[in-house]
Amino acid sequence: MRIRDLIARGEQFLSLEFFPPKDENAWPSFFQTVDRLKAVHPLFVSVTYGAGGGTQHSTLEIVRRMKRDHGLEPMAHLTCVGADEERIGAFLSELQAAGVDNVLALRGDPPHGTETFTPDNEAFAHASDLVTFIRGRCPEMGVAVAGYPEGHPECMTFREDYGYLKHKVDAGADFIMTQLFFDNRLYWNFVDLMRDMGVDKPIIPGVLPIMSLQSVKRILGFCGASIPGKFLLELEAADAEGGPKAAYEVGMRWARQQVRELLDGGAPGVHLYTLNKAEAVLDIVDSLGSVPRASA
C-alpha cells in the first residue's frame, strides 16, 4: 500500500528507519530487533541503501522479508549513485514483484573517501531525476523525498536548497521526510517556508535519539545538522560525571521531549532513526502514554 494513502487517514503515527547489516550472519539478530519494534505499530518502515549501492541487494531482501514475513509496510531507499535506467528499472521491478509499493528517492552521498558527489550518469544527477524516472516507469509507486530543515550542507543558501526540494515535489513526490534535527523550531520554520512556497505535501520530521556523547560528533559530521549548545553541554557534563549511561539518559530525555512536542504541535507523525537499536525506540514510545498506532 502506498504510504501517502496511509498518511491521508489523518492519524498521527510513528515510523522507523533501519539499515541493512553488512554481514548476513547478523540478519537473525536484526530481524529479532525488527520483531521487537513491530510492537510499536509503525505506520511504515524504511530501509537504507548503502553508498555506491553497496547494500542494494540487502535492502531489497530486507524489505521483501519485512513485507512478507513481518507484516510491515516497507519503503526502500534508492539513490543516484551508480544509477542507470537498466539498474534502477530492474530494482523497481523487483520491489513490485515483492509487493513493496514505496521508495525514498535520494541523490545519495559521495562514495567513501571523496567529498564531492559526481554522478555516474547525467540522467541521474539529482534526486528529482529519480522521481521523474519512477513516475514515468512505475506511476503507481509511492515516492518520498528528503528535506533538510537546516538546508543541505552543499547549498549556498536556504533559498537554493528549498527551491531544489520544491522541484523534487513538483516532479511527483508524495511527501517529504526530514533529515535529523535537534531543535523543533527548525522543523516548524521549515514547514512554514515550504508552505509559503506552495508545497502542500506532508512533511514528516526525523528524530535521532542520541545514545552517547561519542556518537554526536560523528553524526553531525556526516549530516550537517547542528546541536543546541544547551543539549551538548548537558551531554558533556553527564558523560564526565556519570559516564556513558548518564549521557544516554540525557540523550533519551531530549528525544522523548522532542517527539512529544512534535506530536503535540501537530506534526503528521515522527520518523525515528533507530540505528537498529530497539531499547531507545521502546523508551521513547513508552514515554508517549497514548501511543500512535498504525491502523490495520
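(ticket continues) Second input and output from the same batch:
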Amino acid sequence: MNITRENIDALNAVVKIEIVKEDYNDKVEKILVDYRKTANIPGFRKGQVPMGMVKKQYGQSVLADEVNKLLQGALSNYLTEEKLDVLGQPLPKQQDEINWDADSFSFEFELGLSPKFDVELKSKKAITHYNIIADDKMIDEQIERIQKQYGKVTPQEDVTKDSEITGTFKNEEKEIDNTVTITLDQFKGKATEKLFIGAKVGDVITLKTKGLYADDHELMNALKIEHDDAHGLDIEVSFTITGINSREAADLDQELFDKLFGKDGVKSVSELKGKIKEDAEKQFVQQSDQKLLNDITEYLVDNTKFDLPEAFLTKWMQVAGEKQLDEAAAKEEYNKSEKSLRYQLIEGKLMQDNDLKVDFEDVKTNAKGMIKMQMAQFGQLNPSEKELDDIAARVLGNQDEVRRISEQVVSQKLLDLYKEKANIKTKEMSYEAFVKEVYGDK
C-alpha cells in the first residue's frame, strides 16, 4: 500500500491511496474458503462447492468489502500519524467504474484542512462585565409579592381593580397556550384594565400584544415565548378567565419568616431584605456571566480572521446529513453555520493554547453540583455523597446529558479564562438598568 498527499493550498489537499494485491489477497482468500465451508448451493453438498463457483458468486463483493475496510483504516491511521487537523470528513473523489478484475486499485480523497491562526483575547476596547445589584425598589417589590403570595385568598365573582386573575393566554398561529395568574397593575394601559373590570370566570378577553406590558420581558413570561420573539410582537391573543381572587397581604412576622426560610432562619425585616438581596444577586451573577460570555464570543468571531475551505465544506454538507442536499441548499446551510464553525475552531484553539481540558471528574463534579441545587429546592439541604454519586451515575448514563454538561464545563473554563486574560471593565447597576441598557426597546 502506498499513500501520498498533494497539498492544493493551505486549506485543501488530496490524499491518494494505492492498494495492491498483496494488501488484500490473503484476507479475501480466507473469507472465500470460509464461505465455501458453509455455502448452500443446490446440486452440491455443503463444503463441496467448487472454489471457482464460490469466487464467481461472492468474490467481487468480498473483495470490495475488504478494499473498503483497508481504505478506511489506512486513511484514518494516515490522518492520525500525519497529525492532520481536518474539517468535516474526507470526501472520495469521483472516478470511473472500478475494474474489480484488476490486481491494484487507486483511490483519491479530498481533505479540508483546519486553518492556522492566533487568538487575541485583549480587545482594544474593554468589554463590559456587569455587576448587577438588587436595589431597594426591587427588594421592596419582592417583599410585596411575598406578602401577596402568602396572604389570605378569597374567591370573587367579578374582577375588581385589585383582583388576582388566573387564566390562559392563547394564539393558535404562534402556538401560545400558557396559564398564568396576573394582576391588572401589570398591564401598561388603563384601557386594558377596563376590559377586565367586571369580567367573570369563563369570560374570554381579546388583547393586542403590542403595548400590553411596559416591558417586553413581562410579555415573554406571560406568553411563555422566546426572548427574541417577544420584542415587537404584534398579534392578538385571547385570555380565558378560570379564577378570580382577592388577596390580603400577609404580615411580616416570624410565622412568615419561618415559612420562607425555616425555623429562625430569618428573624427580622432587615434580615429578610438581606436574604432577598443575597439570593437575587446570586441569580444576577449567572445572567451577567452569560452576557459576558456572549459578548466575548461575538468579539472573537468578528476579530479573529482566518479563511475556511468554503468550497470543500459546501460539498461536504451536500452529503453529510441524512438527506442529500443540492449545491444551492448546501451553500445556504454553509452560510448559516459558518459563524458557529468559526467559533468552534476558536474555542478549540483557546482550549489548546491554554491547556484547558475537560475530564470525566469535571463533568461528574458539575453534575453533582446541579443535583444538589435541585434537591435543595425541594428541601433536601444535606444529601450524602453516596446519594449524589448514585444520582449522578444515572444522569451520566445518558450520553446526551454528558454532552450537555460537558459543554457547560467548557463554557465555565472559558469564562474563567476570559475573566483572567480579556480586557474587561466592571459596571455596577440595578437589574432594571441592566435590562434597559442591554436589551433597550428592541
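Agent notes: The first strand starts at residue 2 and ends at 7. The chain has three domains: 2-113, 152-248, 269-439. Closing as not reproducible unless the customer responds.
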